[in-house]
């Protein structure tokens, strides 16, 4: 019992670190509030859908950034979709990069778009690794009490 409590404490600390480091925001907590006994993997399923959808968008943006001249309206549209998906899971740092990318699109700043997109992909990859490790941990020890507000 003590070991189990310790593991749940570790899991809670890991989850809290995502908020403390700015990777997740309040929206993630709202997703957790929708999870219940009838759908115990709801958050993980939503996050998995986000990664499937965003992989397609990243590919589309990569291709659009190769075209000359750049179609800023199309890039902005893709990024708007990406930002919406990121917002739906509370991917705070990814969402910030999406916003910056959109501003560069509207300014017609090719280098700004390319640089920001590289940073977005880094933030996206880091968050994906963190969440995959988190959900793997959850599956190993069972869910913790969810929907507690970050400190």
Automatic annotation (TrEMBL):
Residues 39-134 form the HPt domain. It comes from the Eukaryota. Pfam families: Hpt. One of its GO terms (biological process) is cytokinin-activated signaling pathway. Signal peptide: none annotated. SUPFAM superfamilies: Histidine-containing phosphotransfer domain, HPT domain (SSF47226). PROSITE patterns: HPT. Coiled coil: none annotated. The keyword Magnesium does not apply. The modification Phosphohistidine is found at residue 80. Keywords: Cytokinin signaling pathway, Phosphoprotein, Two-component regulatory system. GO terms for cellular component: cytoplasm; cytosol; nucleus. The keyword Phosphoprotein applies. Histidine-containing phosphotransfer domain (HPt) contains an active histidine that mediates the phosphotransfer. Functions as a two-component phosphorelay mediators between cytokinin sensor histidine kinases and response regulators (B-type ARRs). Plays an important role in propagating cytokinin signal transduction. PANTHER family: HISTIDINE-CONTAINING PHOSPHOTRANSFER PROTEIN 4, PHOSPHORELAY INTERMEDIATE PROTEIN YPD1. This is Histidine-containing phosphotransfer protein. The gene is LOC107812606.
